[in-house]
Amino acid sequence: MKILKETIDILREKIKIIETTDQENLCLVGPVRMPIKQDDFTATFNWYSWVKVDKMLTIEELVASLATSNLAFGQQSSVLVYGDFAQEEDALIRMHSICHTGDIFGSQRCDCGYQLHESMKMIADHGCGAIFYLADHEGRGIGLFSKSLAYLLQENGHDTVEANQALGFEDDTRSYEDAIRVLEALRDKPVTLITNNPKKLAALKAHGLLADHHVPLWGGLTDTNRFYLETKVQKSGHILEELPTLNV
After folding, report:
1. Is-contact 53 27, C-beta < 8 A?
2. How far apart are CA 127 and CA 230, in angstroms?
């Protein structure tokens, strides 16, 4: 099916190609106005999504190839932006790894859903920031199917780190490089990161993007995720600053 020039003209201004040093570039699309409502919380964000594309691909070729690219069978990441993200001096961001079970179903095996929704509220209250939703990070990089197997091992006595390793994975294989390139395309000022994870802090620090401090995010503690949270502190080095009820 031929793509009309009118379609290309509408989309061209909302598509940005981010050059990388790899064989593929990043194609960033947006902003799209995104009104959000979660219980009593309402806010309007600007939403972007990105995908890797061949370095030689033009915007016209990209749009023309969408119907045959099978993007629904892969995963694409995105970012919710609030306020004047490019210009404000002080912006909060969260690099949030997709958690199908926690973010969508509200699973209490982890604190991911709590962290996602709480970050959105924190950023809206702050007045400026962004949430990067990283689609290839499920289960700290092992994927949803492997994560289901890891959960079965956890039900038989493994902790979250041991379960990943028992399946042949490293504890954490996540990369933040693509998200950081998108961040640099949207903003060139330092940011304050919402996290307990020192690896995320180190990734931004290596690119010179980190403010002098970070914002910890502990909460959503339940009897069913207590052991998981304790393991993140004891084995994955997560920074314990705001959760005194954890006995570690």
Report:
1. yes
2. 32
User: Strand, helix or coil at 227?
Assistant: helix
pLDDT for 151-196, tens place per residue? Answer: 899 888 888 888 888 988 888 888 999 999 999 999 999 999 998 8
Structural tokens at position 128: 């400026």
115-147 burial, b if ≥16 CB within 10 A, otherwise e? Answer: bbbbbbebbbebebbbbbbbebbbbbbbeeebb
Superfamily of domain 35-49+75-137+174-234: GTP cyclohydrolase II (3.40.50.10990)
Is 174 among the catalytic positions? yes
Could you give the angle at the alpha carbon of 107 between the alpha carbons of 197 and 160, nearest 5°? Answer: 50
> How far, in Å, CA of 177 to CA of 183, rounded?
10
Would you kindly state where each structural domain of the chain is located, as residue ranges? 35-49+75-137+174-234
Helices (H), 87-195: 112-126, 138-141, 144-154, 160-166, 177-186
CA–CA dist 127, 81 (Å, integer): 10
Question: CA 202 → CA 26, 65, 76, 196, distances in Å?
Answer: 22, 37, 24, 12
What does the pLDDT read at residue 74? 84
CB 217 within 8 A of CB 194: yes
Catalytic residue among 174, 178, 181, 187: 174
Verify whether residue 172 is a known catalytic residue. Answer: yes
- Residues 136, 159, 171, 172: which is the catalytic one? 172
